[in-house]
Amino acid sequence: MPLRLRRKKKAKFQEIAGRVEGEPTSAGGGSVSASPAPAHKLVFHAQLAHGSATGRVEGFSSIQELYAKIAGAFEISPSEILYCTLNTPRVDMERLLGGQLGLQDFMFAHVKGIKKEVNVYKSEDSLGLTITDNGVGYAFIKRIKDGGVIDSVKTICVGDHIESINGENIVGWRHYDVAKKLKELKKEELFTMTLIEPKKAFEIEPRSRAGKSSEGKIGCGRGTLRLRSKGPATLEEVPSETKAKAIEKIDDVLELYMGIRDIDLATTMFEAGKDKVNPDEFAVALDETLGDFAFPDEFVFDVWGVIGDAKRRGL
């Protein structure tokens, strides 16, 4: 039985599957519903990555509201926050705050630092960088490939926010739109990027958590708060080892076919397929949940294979 997938939208897939990859922060991706929004009060703690006192953060239900609450705790504008890392003040792209926040995670907000303008000669079709975004309008550099075009420009660093390309302001763009813009730049020509690096301090060890307090204490809970750009946050259980490995494999399939990694998108796909009985039902579920992507049939079969293996092992 043929899969009932969209054919007319496949051009969109081709646009974002280039070698200039973009990686979403899970903050912008949709997800199937989990448990209802938590009724009890959740309290988190945060610091500014370059150094500050500890602030309490509570009463948010989306990634935008979280950034606003962090900004309020430190009396800065939300627009000053580039992104957050979890449990480390360093610019560690493996610990970015995305669409999930563990109940015991400590947040470090990286704010705007020095602005710089760099000229890049595009000697190759691929620039050798991976782009992601914070879910609220700031795209930044997540990885730089050794020996690539961008690697040769030593003033460009991982964690730099891309504010404009050739004078065009791209604040508010998603990571894949920025990646497409860079990919479309002509080879053998010079282009200019305006970058903002995160504010830096001396190298320091991760700061300790907030002092002991019974008010709002989470305790030893192992849940995860899933944040969305639209809709309320939901409190979810920590996934089983089998489920977690399956989601990681789906993320690998995403990178293979589309040149992106997005753990929240992979989670959404797993949830969409875990109760389906065949690939056709799974394809329809993907259409309903992620209709803008127009995944190719081979991709759907590979993801369905991962989900099937996980179901056989028991979730």
Summarize the structure.
Belongs to the GIPC family. With 315 residues, the protein is of the alpha+beta class. Helices cover 27% and strands 23% of the residues.
Secondary structure: elements and pairs:
Layout: H1 10-16, E1 21-23, E2 43-48, E3 55-58, H2 63-73, E4 81-86, E5 100-102, E6 106-121, E7 129-133, E8 139-144, E9 161-165, E10 168-169, H3 175-184, E11 190-198, E12 224-226, E13 234-236, H4 241-258, H5 263-273, H6 279-289, H7 297-313
Helix pairs in contact: 4-5, 4-7, 5-6
List the keywords.
single chain, 315 residues, alpha+beta, three-stranded mixed β-sheet, 13 strands, 23% strand
> What's the helical proportion of residues?
25-40%
CATH superfamily membership of the largest domain, which one?
A: PDZ domain
CATH topology of the largest domain: Pdz3 Domain
Question: In oligomeric terms, what are we looking at?
Answer: single chain
Main sheet characteristics: 7 strands, mixed
Structural class assignment: alpha+beta
- Total discrete domains: 2
Low-confidence stretches: 1-39, 203-222
Mean pLDDT: 78
Q: Which outline best applies?
A: globular
| CATH class wording of the largest domain | Mainly Beta
CATH architecture of the largest domain: Roll
What's the number of helices? Answer: 7
